[in-house]
Amino acid sequence: MIRFVGLRLLMAVPTLVLVTLAVFVMMRLVPSDPASVMLGEQVTGEMVARVRQSMGLDQPLPRQYLLWIGDLLQGDLGRSISNNQPVLPTILDRFRISAPIVIVAVTLAALIAVPLGLLTAWRQGSACDVSTVATSTLLPSLPSFWLGLMILLVFGLKLGWFPVLGMVGAIGGGWAVLSAIAMPVLTLLLIEIGAILQMTRPSAVEVLRQDYITHARAKGLSEAVVLRRHAFPDAFAPTWTLIDLILGALLGGIAVVETVFTIPGLGRLPVQAIFERDYPVVQGCILLIALT
Amino acid sequence: MSAIFRGSGRIGLAGWIGGALAFAVIAVAAFGPWLAPYDPMALDLRARLSAPYLDHLLGTGEFGRDILSRLIFGARVSIFVALSTVAVALVIGVGFGVLTGFVRAWTDRIIGIFNDALLAFPGLLLALGVMAVAGASAGAMVLALGLAFASAVLRVTRSAVLSQRAREFVEASRVMGNSEALTMWRHVLPNALAPLIVLATSMFGWVILAESALSFLGLGVPPPAPSWGNMLAAARPYIQDAPWLIVLPGLCIQATLLGVNLLGDALRDLLDPRMRT
């Protein structure tokens, strides 16, 4: 067992090396030089050379890579070019903003979609099943940013239930925070419900056909007990991996939702950084998300 | 070809609706220049943000550009990007998939490691990275998304090849003295076609979604060229005064995605009964 785990971990090393190498090469391929970006337009070549030296950009490439990996292993991702803040704490700050939205949305989506999947599989072909299947086909074809804009339009502007400016006004805590994240959570929730339902319903249909379900029924157990005790755990099992995947994808894909609701979260960080040509931040974000 | 079309043999109503929707969007994209009432880039500053009326059936944008024409040309961008991306992904994915599935040994290992590294990158982030390097353009996006989706094609091709290569007819082709390449092309690949067609259809939908998302973020097709994603981004400040600017491009994206998804599901049922739900 230990040998197996060790081997698997060893197999991950080349992948990790490749990922870091890819990120490194990508950033070195960028046409403009971070040193001249940092200094702006009106500088002498001498100043650029000095900054390049202080950033270690005058070293040969393989040495630069090793230095970067060395810093990386010590948890140092460098400093942002635009505001000179260390990258790792910046990322963690942003994560603290995005995490509640993602976690609340995925948890709620699982709480709704998993029982619903089981229920619709149990009463296959009923009106409830048909409408659920139709919805779960429609939802994934909704682009999340458009759904977000529509929710913003209806609940934020027309009905005025939630603050339009997102997290900007949510300093108070408690209710203020809740109402600030309500619209982004709703957006993600709807998207995720569609995705999870597409997974749970077929797997529940499969489980309900198994012999042990028939056996449980033959024992005279009530339908409720059969569903809760016997069908639910098995139908739910494959969903765990999916929820895992969704959490990962959300941290990458939440960028659009955060842009819609102007939330300064983790998803928007790399996008902003690309616009500002803030390469250490881009590098750090891509690396972190690629590794998780 | 009969091997491809085993299965239930029926497409069903949802499949027809999906096919019709997808076909309509492709037709609009193909005949766009003849359908559009105005030049999608033409400015008309006197008619800024006008609501839909007879002159401009779907209203005008923030610089007085005709929205209907921009939507039609946006379809061209989306379809062009989606088709080229799927082509890039198929060429790369099938090429390396066949190589790893057939040659095995070290090649398989090494490509596997590369593929794992590729899979570790979320598609959107890979695209972000490529955009950072190459700048935002349709070409860079095709390359980025094509690479991102190639790994899925590679996996499907590899597993299809692995399941076919031990079959008797493949063995027979070799015994007859055919080269490996010919055997591959004539006998193995045609049998891997069904899952690839299904994958290509759903990829088409993912790419349209990814393209509009990237353009929305300002990292895809650069304005003023019209794309559904960047039209949404441009309309954001006017959400209160001109909501149709937000509603319409979204409806276009959704209709296209719905069509492609329904068609994809129907094709999956038709071509591969085992994957049916």
Detailed description of the structure:
The complex is a heterodimer of chains A (292) and B (277). By secondary structure, chain A is an all-alpha fold. Helices cover 76% and strands 0% of the residues of chain A. Chain A has twelve helices and no strands. Chain A has helices at 2-29, 34-39, 45-54, 61-73, 87-122, 127-138, 144-158, 175-208, 211-218, 223-260, 268-275, 279-291. In chain A, α11 runs antiparallel to α12. The longest helix of chain A is centred in the C-terminal third of the chain and has 38 residues, at 223-260. Chain A is flat. The mean pLDDT of chain A is 74. In chain B, α3 (67-103) runs antiparallel to α8 (180-217). With 277 residues, chain B is an all-alpha fold. Chain B has a single domain (2-275), classed as MetI-like (MetI-like fold), CATH 1.10.3720. Chain B has helices at residues 12-30, 32-35, 67-103, 105-120, 123-134, 138-165, 168-175, 180-217, 228-235, 244-271. Chain B starts with 11 loop residues before the first helix and ends in a 6-residue tail after the last helix. The A-B interface holds A 14-15, 18-19, 22-23, 26-27, 29-31, 137-138, 140-146, 149-150, 152-153, 157, 201-202, 205, 248-249, 252-253, 255-256, 259-260, 270-271, 274-275, 279, 282, 285-286, 289-291 and B 113-114, 116-117, 120-122, 124-125, 128-133, 135, 205, 209, 212-213, 216-219, 232, 236, 239-240, 243, 246-247, 249-250, 253-254, 257-258, 261-262, 265, 277.
